[in-house]
Specification:
The chain is about 30% helix and about 20% strand. The chain contains 5 helices and 7 strands, in the order ββαββββααβαα. The chain has a 7-stranded mixed beta sheet with strand order 3-2-4-6-5-1-7. Bound molecules: zinc ion (ZN). Zinc ion binds near residues 6, 8, 157, 161 and 169.
Length: about 240
Amino acid sequence: MTIRSIALLAMAVPFSVCADNSSAAPLAVYYSFDTPPSALLITEMQSEVGRILAAAGVRVAWRAVGSPRNGEDFQGIVVFRFRGACSFDRDPGPNRYPAKSSGQPLGATDVADGQVLPFGAVDCDRLRQFIAPLMKSLSLEERNAILGRAMARVGAHEIYHILTGSEEHARRGIARASHSRAELTAPIFAFARAETDWLRAWAAAPVPQPTVAAVGSDTIPRETEITAPESISSVAR
Ligand SMILES: [Zn+2]
């Protein structure tokens, strides 16, 4: 079985809706971090993913990878790995970053034999480097909070691939193939109308997804299985 990944790219050039479906079983996001992030960053990330998906009536339940199911009923399950250092705490500073960071994959979802798998990843190192130029005048706490927000937007993009089972991208909003610094860090960034409508329909009647038999660290694809990302020209796919 070959596993490759579809990737959300950083874009060099620099954009809300509401519904209530609180009775539906939530979407479970099983997550793991390569390095432990701050509580503030996790709170910011989780609340932003919750805000983005709540616009389509999708509720989210966060679970650490390896935590027991306890008989919980989930409408869907996605597994996320947050790679690298998801924090500005030991950041080398903007002057130490490579000058050109656009076109780099910020997140990815695994695809095996043409089927989108429920395994996503966010590359915190690349994401941190990408948004760093906008963070210069902010405090460490503010930078970490905004990094958490940006991680949520990349994560929501990958969640959309996983739930739709599609590698397609939208023309606007979070489901677009690339995100700018401004979009990742702005107070508001959301799915466009068509994708919000799709998610709302999913919340009402979820599309079957590949079964996740057990969510543990051994179920997360290895780094070596991630291959070169799509180029930015894949927007029209
Ligand atoms: Zn994508």
